[in-house]
Design brief:
Homodimer. The chain is an alpha/beta fold. It is built from 19 helices and 27 strands. The site of 2-deoxy-2-amino glucitol-6-phosphate (AGP) has 15 residues, from helix 9.
């Protein structure tokens, strides 16, 4: 977590960095800080707890001029989110400043060592050891900043993306990464931008270098960009062209990114299957994994690893792969899988699902599986992300940037890719007859229009939200592939409105959660037409018998549930394998409206960050 931005060039650095930090605020918003070196060689370091806007207000009263600077927006790991713990951290002599995203695991021993050498620590952060360590090496070994960074990083255990600014070379910034992302933007007239992702860079240049693990980048106004490994081997920078558009990272007239992203789903789902699905010719193909299709078709089992919403998408994937491709799937929380000494071998295929492609646990789970010889595949949204680069192959979701912390369009895009994958493997295995295959792909092509139709009912969603906005608890129930949808609905509600919510398989309710039901309890039930419909109707009756309030997501034309539910939202009929793509939309919308009505910060919910790059 945490977002970092740095600039060196001919323009004023502060406004560029400030704007960049606002774009990266989704990565953490506990505190923010910017250090700028001005023309008189004064290093002005402004830090504020809270949002970037608070830093902006504070710095407006001070000198923030200078053409080189570094900035940080923090998601607190070590130490409270106060001004002192905010980055940048400055060396004891005030000559150098540093920003860091990641965690230094051996910070305790490094700190003790540095304290014994006379360094005084001001903050409670792990990061502060880095600046003192680099300073110590620089002075003792009489080396320049880049070399001191290199030596220092050889004794650091943990994850880092750092940028160091030093008064003794105002023409240079030194950056390094391991496990936390860092992108270098190559601007005009010798300008360079460094950032945790490309969003702060895109309006200045589309030429970028995605740094690899254990690389150091030196950007210099006179000498340009040079990249070294931390073993000191110079490398040729691999420059890539960004396809990201500025409009994609702006709100485009919506009040919140989350609402914009919910409404983008007809387009994002279409973008996801564009060129991968042809209904007239009757084929599905995923170019990114074509070399692994035979292996997938022969697989005895597939393991899916993910966290949060992406884990819910993996659960939907389990139903799809088992039903269509008849391959057993195990869905694992990446954080549990990596520490469980899992049994994996060369025959296994591990698929990681991650919007950001940077989630630390998912990345570590994949690395573990790779080290045991498994084939590792990725389903990521962010192009060029760490997961997409370490996997043997994969498929992008093409949902476009997702800025709201609550994942919405990424989920439906992940489910779309998983559907395409399951369909193509099923065909390869010969498990899926023509009629069923054609029916599913025909229905899949209609999903964007059907999502659009649900989105037209925003007033109805708002009305329901107004009724339950003050609820303290909520239950979400579903069966079969609606169970992950229930989990996802509950996660959406709790993360942005802070209402306690639980997702359950509907039949499991009577084994405990039913005790919670009274006339105050809203129970959201996914009761669309499908094999479990009648069973779900019985579960609804059980809730009604205890005076619980039923908000049902039903298939258009349903009369049975309509008659017994307190509220209902109708969604268009579709193939049962595709139902999660539609049933999830009303739950996203209701969570959104409830959060807005409660005055919550929808796009930046408390304690959360979009990209969880710490374990
Ligand atoms: C969901 O709304 C959250 N943002 C969170 O659960 C998220 O899905 C999780 O942190 C995984 O992120 P990833 O998809 O980027 O790996």
């Amino acid at each position: 977590m945490c977002g970092i931005v740095a600039y060196i060039g001919k323009e004023q650095a502060f406004p560029i960095i400030l704007k960049g930090l606002k774009r990266l605020e989704y990565r953490g918003y506990d505190s923010a800080g910017i250090a700028v070196l001005n023309d008189d060689s004064s290093l002005n370091n402004y830090k504020r707890s809270g949002k970037v806007s608070e830093l902006e207000e504070f710095a407006a009263q001070h000198d923030s001029t200078g053409t080189v600077g570094i900035g940080h927006t923090r998601w607190a790991t070590h130490g409270l989110p106060n001004n002192i713990n905010a980055h940048p951290h400055v060396s004891s002599d005030g000559e150098m400043a540093l920003i860091h995203n990641g965690i230094i695991e051996n910070y305790d021993s490094l700190r003790e060592e540095l304290m014994s050498r006379g360094y005084v620590f001001k903050s409670e952060t792990d990061t502060e050891v880095l600046i003192h360590l680099i300073d110590d090496i620089k002075k003792n070994e009489q080396v320049k900043t880049a070399e001191a960074v290199r030596i220092a990083l050889n004794s650091v255990i943990g994850a880092y993306a750092i940028v160091v600014l030093s008064k003794d070379n105002p023409n240079q910034l030194v950056a390094a990464r391991k496990s936390s992302p860092l992108v270098v933007g190559i601007g005009k007239d010798g300008a360079f931008y460094l950032a945790s992702d490309a969003t702060p860079i895109i309006e200045y240049t589309n030429e970028v270098v995605y740094m690899e693990d254990e690389e150091i980048a030196v950007v210099d106004r006179n000498d340009g960009l040079r990249i070294f490994s931390i073993q000191d081997k110079e490398k040729v920078p691999y420059i890539q062209r960004l396809e990201l558009k500025l409009e994609a990272i702006e709100k485009g007239g919506y009040e919140h990114f989350m609402l914009k992203e919910i409404h983008e789903q007809p387009r994002s789902i279409k973008d996801c299957f564009r060129g991968r699905l042809n209904v007239d010719e009757g084929w599905v193909k995923l170019g990114g994994i074509k070399d692994y299709e035979s292996k997938l078709a022969k697989a005895k089992r597939i393991i899916m690893v993910a966290c949060g919403t992406s884990w819910h998408a993996a659960l939907v994937g389990e139903y799809l792969f088992e039903d269509l491709a008849r391959i057993p799937v195990e869905v694992e929380y990446a954080s549990e899988f990596r520490y469980r000494n899992p049994i994996i071998d060369e025959d296994d295929i591990v698929i990681a699902i991650s919007q950001s492609g940077e989630t630390a646990d998912t990345l570590a789970a994949l690395n573990l599986a790779k080290s045991k010889g498994a084939t590792i595949l990725g389903i990521c949204n962010v192009v060029g992300s760490s997961i997409s680069r370490i996997t043997h192959a994969g498929s992008y979701t093409h949902a476009g940037p997702e800025i709201g912390v609550a994942s919405t369009k990424a989920f439906t895009a992940q489910v779309t890719v998983l559907t395409l994958m399951a369909l193509s493997i099923a065909r390869k295995k010969g498990n899926l007859d023509d009629t069923k295959f054609r029916r599913i792909i025909t229905e899949l092509e209609l999903i964007p229009d059907k999502v659009a139709k649900i989105l037209e009912q925003s007033e109805k969603h708002e009305e329901i939200s107004a009724v339950y906005k003050d609820a303290r608890n909520a239950l979400y129930l579903g069966r079969g592939n609606s169970f992950p949808v229930a989990l996802e609905g509950a996660l959406k509600l709790k993360e942005i409105s802070y209402i306690h919510a639980e997702g359950y398989p509907a039949a499991e309710m009577k084994h405990g959660p039913i005790a919670l039901i009274d006339e105050e309890m809203p129970v959201f039930v996914i009761a669309t037409k499908g094999p479990s419909y009648e069973k779900v109707v019985s579960n609804i009756q059980e809730v009604k018998a205890r005076k619980g309030k039923i908000i049902a997501v039903i298939t258009e034309g349903d009369t049975q549930v309509k008659a017994i539910a307190d509220h209902y939202i109708e969604i268009p009929d579709t193939d049962e394998n595709l139902a999660p793509l539609l049933a999830t939309i009303p739950l996203q919308l209701i969570s959104y409206y409830v959060a807005v009505m409660r005055g919550a910060n929808v796009d930046q919910p408390r304690n959360l960050a979009k990209s969880v790059t710490v374990e």
